[in-house]
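Two quick folds needed for the group meeting slides. Do the first one here.
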Amino acid sequence: MSLIEAQGLERRFGGETVLHGVNLSVERGEIVTIVGPNGSGKSTLLRMLAGALTPSSGTVTHAKGLVIGYVPQKLTLETGLPMSVRRFLDVPKRQSDADVIHALKRVSAETLSARQLEGLSGGQMQRVLLARALLQKPDVLMLDEPTQGLDQTGQADFYRMIEELRQELGCAVMMVSHELHVVMSASDRVICLNGHICCQGTPEIVQSAPEYRALFGTGTHGTLALYRHEHDHTHDHVHDENCAHGEDA
């Protein structure tokens, strides 16, 4: 069974339909990235798949006992609330010192344990949030625009780390991103979203799809060489939806 299966997902906010007709599945060990223009429903879809948002219609099915580690796009902190990284990692469940040290070290943030959250840079905060997700020992790691605010080198480093974590943990990874110049080649499968799934498949398939080019132009041509992870050939069967498309929301 797939780790996550979604059928006929639709989400409405008031009278506006943000997403409709979304069918997808997530398999263990694959890296799936959701791309699309602003307002295309990327974060909404990720939150529905995580169970943080209820679909207006359709279903999301999780494999029995599924554990999801979720890294939000940003964390809003109460101004002036003193909280160290170490204390933050004990929320909502107290963690052992050994587990915390291991998680922080794994994301190259071991020096941040005693730091206050409000003093962290954007990149440091993303690493702390990732460490918190890793402490859950996830079957699926979900990341909502995790490299926002990082420069190109920082983005490439982050995606290399995600690839290593996928290999070590054997987990699936789902990411939302608008950093096309890196993320396309950091994925086994790309889902192009614009209120519905415009097309999906390997990065090469999606990049050459008319629907993708209509949304993003040809400016990303050739960028697959920027960062190439070693694809696990067991995932070469990833879905090609033949870029079937419907009405834009």
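Then this one, please, same format:
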Amino acid sequence: MAMTNPFQFIQQVRAEVSKVVWPSRREVMLTTLMVLAIATLTAIFFSLVDLAIRSGLTAILNIAG
């Protein structure tokens, strides 16, 4: 693989970065809020599943013991 000289590399990097479409502040805020909401809902769901499993196992062990 041929080595690119540092000047050409920097030019290529700048050319690629200029093609990037950066999100607006509004888009960043909306996606951040969506991620936080989904993470919260997921945490609540798994907490409820954990509580149900723990209650079920406790009931089974109390009946058996």
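Slide caption for protein two: Residues 50 and 56 are 10 Å apart (CA to CA).
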